[in-house]
Amino acid sequence: MESLKEKTVNGLFWSFFDSFGKQFISFFIGIILARLLEPSVYGILGMIVVFIAISGVFISSGFGSALIRKTNLTDTDCNTTFYFNIGVAIFFYFLLFFTSPFIATFYREPSLTLIIRVLGIVLLINAASIVQQSLLIKRIDFKTQSKISIIRTIISGGVGIIMAYRGFGVWSLVVQQLTGGFIGTTLLWYYNKWKPKWEFSIQSFKDLFGFGSKLLISALIDTIYNNLYYLIIGKFFSAAQLGFFTRAQGYSNLFSSNLTRVIERVSYPVLSSIQENPRALRSGYRKIIKSSMLISFAAMMGLAACSESLVIILIGEKWAPCVPYLQLLCFSQMLYPLHAINLNILKVKGRSDLFLKLEIIKKCISIPVIIVGIYLGIKAMLIAMIVNGCIAYLLNSYYTASLIQYSTISQLKDITPSFLVGVATCLAMWSVELLMLSLVQQFIVQLLVGGILLIFILEIFKLHEYLEIKSILHTYYRKVSFKRT
Questions:
Q1: 279 vs 55, 274, 337, 352, CA distance in Å?
Q2: Which residues have a Cβ under 8 Å from the Cβ of 45 and sit 6 or more positions away?
Q3: By CB neighbour count within 10 A (0-12 exposed, 13-18 middle, 19+ buried), where does 459 fall?
Q4: 3-state SS of 175-217?
Q5: What would the pLDDT profile of 404-442 be if each residue is shown by its tens digit?
Q6: Has this prediction a pTM greater than 0.90?
Q7: Count of CA atoms in the C-beta half-sphere (13 A) of 113
Q8: What would the pLDDT profile of 340-381 be if each residue is shown by its tens digit?
Q9: Which one-letter DSSP state was computed for residue 23?
Q10: With DSSP H G I counted as helix, E B as strand and the rest as coil, what are the percentages for the chain, rounded to 5?
């Protein structure tokens, strides 16, 4: 039997491999697609993201998190969740099917009607995978999920590239998503041995929904808010500008969202398993925060520093307008892992009521951000998002402090060294622009300067979080080496 630490290390490695391996492949696929497709194509697809995302939240309804957290999980719980997910997915698919003409009219984009009706099929496909994926997460089996993610990304990406090359435009992106969903769900059923039975328990539904319902409302509020930017930009600006925004967000998500997803997926089941031990919970939580924020600060500030050379070299001059969007998004998303970990504590402690309360408060104070975007433009909206992110963190950490006795001030003290390391690396990389090199030379020098300086600082000052990351990597390396011998 693996110890909790071994499971955590193994889960972290495979979750990192899953998210970043998949994104590494998606990154290169995205480069090819961005060169083949126009920015307006991405903008058209971005117009309907909010509707697909909201439907997905209702389909899940927090049941996945409820299954992961439940200590005495039964087959009845899984069966009940499965049929609930499928039933809600069917309802929302037909809702989108019949409302698609109105959405197309709202955006003044007639082609959206058919696009929504076809892309909506992905809701049905994904609904069939929720229980299977939750069971893998509960077992902290990210190795299997990594295999599935890599396979689905390669195949769906290949399909998208072939269609884009042959001139299918936006349909290459639509079919790419459908292909990825189908392959991912099929492989989850193949690797996971659980199979549903004809069973639906009202009592089980009440138990799971009692916890999941508050997460549903929280996720709904969060999803609407996060995707509202697509709605605003698509309505008040051009499809090309929305395309620039989506491309910038895609690059910023390479690190922020993927790191957040990794930390959230691994920390939730791990911390849930020690929820009855306050000292161990606080210690584990603190280690996760310090290590994840060192990576986040260094990665996001470094990406902001080299964004101009990165974008133009990889996808061409036609995408240059997305550079300032990318830089601002990097700074607004730096704290994402911190948000996720603080919110995970609320779920671990069973306080989905506080989770919901926080989401309502944070989204209410975010209304000015939306107003700024409508009247002052996209850049002003992104600056407002940075300020809003800092306020949101203070709110998240306030409730966490009372639950595990780890105050906001203590958290800020713990992550300040990592922040300073990120700032030093960012400034050094940005200063390379003063050398007036070609874009290719500039990009190469920026990476070298940033990487060398980062390692030098960390080795000199021996930050505890850096040593923790090295320890995790060393532990996994020894484990792999032992298995080979």
A1: 39, 9, 22, 22
A2: 115, 170, 173, 174, 246
A3: exposed
A4: HHHHHHHHHHHHHHHHHCCCCCCCCCCHHHHHHHHHHHHHHHH
A5: 777 888 888 888 988 999 999 999 999 998 888 888 899
A6: no
A7: 6
A8: 777 777 776 667 677 777 777 877 777 777 787 777 888 888
A9: H
A10: 85, 0, 15
